[in-house]
């Protein structure tokens, strides 16, 4: 049983099949959206830092725009290993580094720091969220912007209907089952993955792994209250993938801070 903080080595086994699990995610739309935000709020940006980059799909997609110099980090060595393999195949110039986003170690600063796919929701306490903002402040240029999204309680209520009991064979060697539950009183959304490594010929199970991922679900008001305790000011809170203000029915909210 692996029940580790994602700021340590979560996604260890899941890294092998992460791109298949995330196969329905429209990274091209997400990339265009982040680029739109950068053009809108800091159009001269060149040096970009991605936090919680996973297997690097987003960073590699952003690199294709041929506008930015990109550094991408993740706390999971396994995820970074997969990202570096993809980068090598694509002859990418992205620097991928294993790094906890609550302990950023850089000698340079960046025009933009961003993190996507509700990585913020993995932080369960106000102190962790405040520390994230402190870390980013120290690696961000004075006129730089910090972009991140988070999912709302309304999103969790809707998501469990299609995430719970999801099953998929992802390649010749793995299959997984996911259970998803949302404790609204505690504000915790839990996804549990049962991952089976199989023999590609007989389909028999060789090993079984379990990973549990717990996210703290925040309202817009809660996040904005915490931001007021940081050195950042809110430039915009956007609804989903639109350059329109977030509202009470937003499933995902994207914050742009300076």
Describe this protein with a few key phrases.
258 residues, alpha/beta, seven-stranded mixed β-sheet, four-stranded antiparallel β-sheet, 7 helices, 11 strands, globular
Topology as H/E string?
A: HHEHEHEEHEHEEEEHEE
Across the major sheet, the strand order is 3-2-1-4-5-11-10
User: Shape from CA axes?
Assistant: globular
- Rg: 18 Å
Report on the biggest sheet: 7 strands, mixed
Which residues sit in consecutive blocks of at least 5 with pLDDT less than 50?
Answer: 1-9
Percent strand: 25-35%
Structural class: alpha/beta
Give the CA-CA distance, first to last residue: 40 Å
How do the helices and strands line up, and which of them pair or pack?
Blueprint: H1 18-21, H2 27-41, E1 47-50, H3 57-63, E2 69-74, H4 77-89, E3 95-98, E4 110-115, H5 126-139, E5 140-151, H6 153-163, E6 166-169, E7 174-183, E8 188-198, E9 205-216, H7 220-227, E10 234-239, E11 252-257
Parallel strand pairs: 1-2, 1-4, 2-3, 4-5
Antiparallel strand pairs: 5-11, 6-7, 7-8, 8-9, 10-11
Explain what you see.
By secondary structure, the protein is of the alpha/beta class. The protein is 28% helix and 31% strand. The radius of gyration is 18 Å and the shape is globular.
Task: Kindly summarize this structure in a few lines.
The chain has 258 residues and is an alpha/beta fold. It has helices at residues 18-21, 27-41, 57-63, 77-89, 126-139, 153-163, 220-227, and strands at 47-50, 69-74, 95-98, 110-115, 140-151, 166-169, 174-183, 188-198, 205-216, 234-239, 252-257.
């Amino acid at each position: 049983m692996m029940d580790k903080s994602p700021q340590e080595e979560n996604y260890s086994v899941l890294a092998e099949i992460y791109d298949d699990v995330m196969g329905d995610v429209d990274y091209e739309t997400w990339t265009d959206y982040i680029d739109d935000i950068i053009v809108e709020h800091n159009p001269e940006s060149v040096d970009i830092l991605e936090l919680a980059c996973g297997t690097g799909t987003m960073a590699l997609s952003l690199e294709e725009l041929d506008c930015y110099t990109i550094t991408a980090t993740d706390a999971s060595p396994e995820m970074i290993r997969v990202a570096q393999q993809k980068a090598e195949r694509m002859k990418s110039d992205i620097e991928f580094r294993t790094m906890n986003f609550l302990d950023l170690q850089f000698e340079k600063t960046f025009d933009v720091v961003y993190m996507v796919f509700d990585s913020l929701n993995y932080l369960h306490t106000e102190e962790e969220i405040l520390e994230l903002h402190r870390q980013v402040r120290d690696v961000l240029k004075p006129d730089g912007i910090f972009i991140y999204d988070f999912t709302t309680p309304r999103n969790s209520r809707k998501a469990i209907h299609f995430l719970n009991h999801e099953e998929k064979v992802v390649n010749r060697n793995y299959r997984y089952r996911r259970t998803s539950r949302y404790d609204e009183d505690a504000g915790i959304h839990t996804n549990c993955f049962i991952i089976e490594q199989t023999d590609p010929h007989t389909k028999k199970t060789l090993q079984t792994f379990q990973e549990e991922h717990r996210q703290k679900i925040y309202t817009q008001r809660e996040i904005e209250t915490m931001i007021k305790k940081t050195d950042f000011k809110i430039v915009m809170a956007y609804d989903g993938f639109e350059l329109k203000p977030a509202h009470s029915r937003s499933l995902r909210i994207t914050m742009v801070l300076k």
